[in-house]
Amino acid sequence: MSSKLLSICIPTYNRCDILDETLRKLFENPDFNNEYIEVIVSDNCSTDDTKKVVSKYSSVKYYCNEKNTSFYNLTTALSYATGKYIKLYNDTFNFRFGALEKIISKIRMHENEKTNLFFYPNFLHNHNTTKTIDSIESFFFHCSYNTTSTAAIGFWKKDFDVIGDKNKYAPLHFPQLEWMYRIVENGRQTIIYFEDWFEVTVPNKKGGYNVFKTFVNDYLNIIKMEKLSFFAYELEKYRLCRHFIYLWLVVLFVSNKDKYNFETKNVYKILFTKYWYEPYFYPMLILFLLKKISKKNNSF
């Protein structure tokens, strides 16, 4: 049986420089202790110097896929974990001061009763607070589309091991959602700690996929399959539109489009397919178009 309390699992692909900084800061963290924390890197068949970078850190358990498996690598990274509590850790993350100590403390506090524990970044109406939930709909109310966040993915290994189809939603880019939903439904109390646990290093030209297709099509199709109530589903659609879609429209088409490499093909078709009958969609779209026109006029 593993003596480790926590497994930090890092899926990565072609980000060796950022990964190097992430690992360095992790091991230099005064709250990090090899006696009860293990670090795992699951390399999704990188073509850069990822393996060479990881070799600098002798205690890291390094695994490399024979081919790039896309989002399936999230499941693969967790499958190597041996700790009691296992956590995904993006290759762009760094714990804020004192955050790792707090997380370890909470894990120890609930180690015996195995309460479901999630560590979410501050989000919407939840800032530096603790919420106890007892249903999927309550989970959505407090976490919304941030249930997709890699920063929040963590649970007891025994609960992960018994999930039947761990890759149910991997073809839709979000294998983590199946894990989180099934754990929330396991009949035990779920506690969510909201705090800004991480700082994030944003990669140059982040992207490579269509953020609108991924969230508007894939994510909404997933929660449709979860058979939420009509009210819960419509509230989630609104939040996604108001707090996520609008933000990325402005970022990718107005303010910071040169910083990212997300695909934007068929963006309006994607949005209208899901939102054409929603009254709140059109004021948001008009506001976005006014910003875009204003930006264009100011550039002359």
TrEMBL record:
Family annotation (InterPro entries): Glyco_trans_2-like, Nucleotide-diphossugar_trans
Keywords linked to the UniProt accession: Transferase
Domain Glycosyltransferase 2-like: 7-131
One Pfam family recorded for the sequence: Glycos_transf_2
UniProt keyword annotation of Cell membrane present: no
GO molecular function, a single term: hexosyltransferase activity
CDD domains in alphabetical order: Glyco_tranf_GTA_type
Protein name: Glycosyltransferase involved in cell wall bisynthesis
Organism: Flavobacterium johnsoniae
Lineage of origin: Bacteria, Pseudomonadati, Bacteroidota, Flavobacteriia, Flavobacteriales
